[in-house]
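Meet today's protein:

…
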Amino acid sequence: QVQLVESGGGLVQPGGSLRLSCAASGSIFSISAMGWYRQAPGRQREFVAIITSGGATNYADSVKGRFTISRDNAKNTVYLQLNNLKAEDTAVYYCKQYTSPDVWGQGTQVTVSS
């Protein structure tokens, strides 16, 4: 059974940076697309970024140029580098493994505040 564990969240000032990590168990990580989503209080969960097994990436317009998704298949880990953070980036960030069925992590809180 695949499990995903996120880490790296925290409190950061506007303009600051964080790097989120998502460690996956299981043997199919390298052939799975991986994604990051976020959910702010009172709002629906929204797509942030995706990386395919081949390394192709795509981003939500709201984070393009500021966030970078990457993966290390040797470590079964996907990363999300968050730069130039804004207050509106405050949310719980979840990673997702695109399998059947999809697998979600438990989330990590990112708070951007001065």
